[in-house]
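re: that chain from earlier
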Amino acid sequence: MTVEPPVVSPLAHRAQDLTSLEKTSSGQVLAAEVQDLVQVDLRVNAGLTPRLTLPLPSRPDTFVAAPSLDVLWLGPDEWLLVAQADTAGSLSADLNETLAGEHHSLVDVSAARAVVDLTGLGALELLSKGCGLDLHPRSWGPGDCAQTLLARVPVILQQRAEATRIFVRPSFGDYLVDWLLDAGVV
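^ sequence. v structure.
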């Protein structure tokens, strides 16, 4: 009999540190790891996208939110599908069936990124301390996403209505949490 070890999120050991950001930022920024997300990287020729039932964003650096699914534009032929863990299996199966016989790539990259949500009035100001993107509301708002560097770490930023979501490789997770804590001191 094989016993599967419990799944532990990449930043589980830093949950308390993320929570402490609220105090160090004088209540301006709240941070929490987002767990149980499935991330699927879809690569397909843009000419085939009309065949898909997914709402794919066609404008660079944007995302489309559908029920229980976000689709982030990463490149002219690449999208990141982000869904709750319980909906991802059927999503991949449906896409593989729809694209059968066509040149495409569909890869579960869930283990490749940890996810942190930042909320609060100071979230974008905090991120602007280490990010070259213009995060002012005139340039950055809900529906936007981008691959960028944050504190010299490659990340994907997603501006949702309720939070700024940061996708980061687990190997950079501890460094990013430390940077957030340091940059968040008011």
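The domain at 37-110 is CATH 3.30.70.1520 (Alpha-Beta Plaits).
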